[in-house]
Amino acid sequence: MLYNVAQLLKESVGASRGLIIDGELYDLDEHNPGPVPVCGELTLVRTEDGILAAGFAEAVVTEECRRCLEPVESAVRIEFEEEYVPSIDIETGAQIPTDESTPELVINERHILDISEVVRQYIVMEATTALCRQDCKGICPQCGKNLNLGPCDCKIDNVDPRLEILKQLLDTDSQ
Ligand SMILES: [Zn+2]
Ligand SMILES: [Zn+2]
């Protein structure tokens, strides 16, 4: 997901381009080695210091359900907005020092802006909220059984600590 921004860097602040995102991501995480197709839209805007990249991207990724840990395919849509800075002055060719802590936001010496790493990070963050289904029952905290497959043999008295207060209230009521 590379964009040549040489021309845009020569333009004045506020100049912009509307572009299509159509690419593939690799190494999202252990469940998604890739290629994972990604599509979306991107707007690049010339700023004082570089180029603002804003847009959205969509991908279908495989994740663990956050309750039962079973693999689940989920469609993820992210919106992003990041400012990229040049490593070479477009007019003079001189090197520009860049922030080493954010290498993914540096436009390279051939004036190529790469949104892959930013989109990858946003998708990984978003994908951690996956559920296999809205009413997923999760796993039993005691025996680890996937409760979507049926109840486990743990004693009903072993109430989830978060439900303990409710259980006490019910017990009080029935006395
Ligand atoms: Zn689940
Ligand atoms: Zn159990």
Q: What does this 3D model show about the protein?
A:
- The chain is of the alpha+beta class and 175 residues long.
- The chain has two domains: 2-127, no CATH class; 137-175, no CATH class.
- 17% of the residues lie in helices and 34% in strands.
- It is built from three helices and seven strands; from the N terminus they run βαββββββαα.
- The protein has helices spanning 6-10, 116-127, 161-173; strands spanning 2-4, 16-25, 36-46, 51-64, 71-86, 106-107, 112-114.
- The strands form two sheets. The protein has a five-stranded mixed beta sheet with strand order 2-3-4-5-6. A two-stranded antiparallel sheet has the order 1-7.
- The chain is elongated, with a radius of gyration of 24 Å.
- It starts with a strand and ends with a helix.
- The structure holds zinc ion (ZN) (2 copies).
- One zinc ion (ZN) binds next to loops.
Mean residue pLDDT: 90
Helix proportion range: 10-25%
Bound molecules: zinc ion
- Span from first to last CA? 66 Å
Query: What portion of residues belong to β-strands?
Result: 25-35%
Radius of gyration: 24 Å
Largest sheet: 5 strands, mixed
**Count of extended strands:** 7
Q: What spatial order of strands do you see in the largest sheet? A: 2-3-4-5-6
Helix and strand content put the structural class at alpha+beta
Order of helices and strands: EHEEEEEEHH
Number of helices: 3
Ranges with pLDDT <50 over ≥5 residues?
none
Shape: elongated
User: How many domain modules?
Assistant: 2
Which features would summarize this protein structure in a list?
alpha+beta, two-stranded antiparallel sheet, binds zinc ion, 2 domains, 7 strands, five-stranded mixed beta sheet, 175 residues, 34% strand
